[in-house]
Amino acid sequence: MTVQFPADFVFGAATASYQIEGAVAEDGRRPSIWDTFSHTQGKVADGDTGDVACDHYHRFGEDVALMKQLGLDSYRFSLAWPRIKPDDGSVNAAGLAFYDKLVDELLAAGIDPVVTLYHWDLPQALEDRGGWRSRATAERFAEYAAVAAGHLGDRVAKWITLNEPYCSSILGYAEGVHAPGAQEGEGALQAAHHLLLGHGLATQAVRAAAPSVEVGVTLNLVSVQQVSQSPADAEAAARCLLIGNLLFTDPVLAGRYPESAREVWKPVTDFSFLRDGDLETVHQPLDFLGVNYYSPSRPEAVEPDEPDPSRRAASDLGFRQQQRPGEYLTEMGWPVEAGSFTDLLVWLRDTYGATLPPVYITENGIACPDDVRSAGRVDDQDRIRYVRDHLGAVRGAMAKGVDVRGYYVWSLLDNFEWARGYQPRFGLVHVDYDTLERTPKASFDWYREVIASREVR
């Protein structure tokens, strides 16, 4: 079956600064929380760090040439905050110069750049002052956003404030599996709120610095599937929807926190960090919403890990993810079910109606055990199947009236996959981490045909 996309539908690929750039101590870049976290023993698989990553900092020309070969309409990448404004002091001109060169190279190749301001690499100097628990960090973020947009806004038309604030707050400050590695109750919810406040302030700052650009935010959202009709599993599904989606979508798209939030988190916080006017700031008009999606969520009820509610992390809400016997799991341990992607996009439309702006799929992809042939060629049929099926799911949502305007595969390159290190590979391009040689995979050639034809077969 052939699925046709409109001629103006945007096909792209995405990366993130800490995952590919390397050069962590060059040209004035200072440490981020991920430098600190990855250098802390036991935090990252195999003791991996992002010190070199894919060395994109020195090889960006080669990588842009690969993007041109692929035929990308657009490339989504993030700026490294600690390259540009390492603390709350002066601006690092050398850091801006790198992104000048990258943006100009992309434009020369006919590729539209899309900038993400924050993909998790908070300057360590700001974490030392409280990080996202602190309201001041949201203010510093807006200052950094103004500098970046003032410098690049003449050439970059689309700006994303945050990537996946759920991961930054819940994985980083509640579960402790991402930087900065905290396991907190109120601190994680403070972080979530101040990330959203930072989004609102940064949106205002970007528009003031570059009035003609478009601004959005990227959220990683879940398609929640209730696993049984029991009251306990129904409640687990509601809590999963709250922490995975509504904690972020309601403030951004509706200017409110969900009614259930205060009750669910009453044991750990009184929400005193929420000030008058904050939600109006968070609820900025958006030009688009970025959606990252990988897998369905199937919460089943369990007893909380911490019996004392006052000591629970913000994520300890009495559920775990159910896995079905025999189903295919990605290298990340995630089940694959493309139809759930359509369900999520329709849920967004039905929940927020006319307030939902146009949607771009800013990440979607799979880590799978790539078959590396003797000649270095990778025949990644699992990846082709995954992207094909999920593009079909996107087109299905469009047929149901959801305004989706583009799709960015994750990822262009194999890269540093956060706490998993270098073992999971998401790229269309294989990276030999010893030599840093790039080799396009079978999925690269397949995606190139999709982009050229606007068809998925």
Question: What report would you give on this structure?
Answer:
Keywords: Carbohydrate metabolism, Cellulose degradation, Glycosidase, Hydrolase, Polysaccharide degradation. It catalyses: Hydrolysis of terminal, non-reducing beta-D-glucosyl residues with release of beta-D-glucose. Helix 7 (135-152) packs parallel to helix 9 (186-209). Strand 10 (359-363), helix 14 (381-399) and strand 11 (404-410) form a beta-alpha-beta unit. This protein starts with a strand and ends with a strand. An eight-stranded parallel β-barrel has the order 2-3-4-5-6-7-10-11, surrounded by six helices. Helix content is 39%, strand content 14%. It has helices spanning 17-20, 33-38, 56-70, 81-84, 93-108, 124-127, 135-152, 165-173, 186-209, 231-254, 259-264, 278-282, 339-352, 381-399, 442-453; strands at 3-4, 10-14, 74-78, 112-118, 158-163, 214-220, 288-292, 299-301, 319-321, 359-363, 404-410, 429-431, 438-440, 455-456. The chain has 457 residues and is α/β, with parallel strands linked by helices. The chain has a single domain, classed as Glycosidases (TIM Barrel, Alpha-Beta Barrel). 53% of the residues are buried.
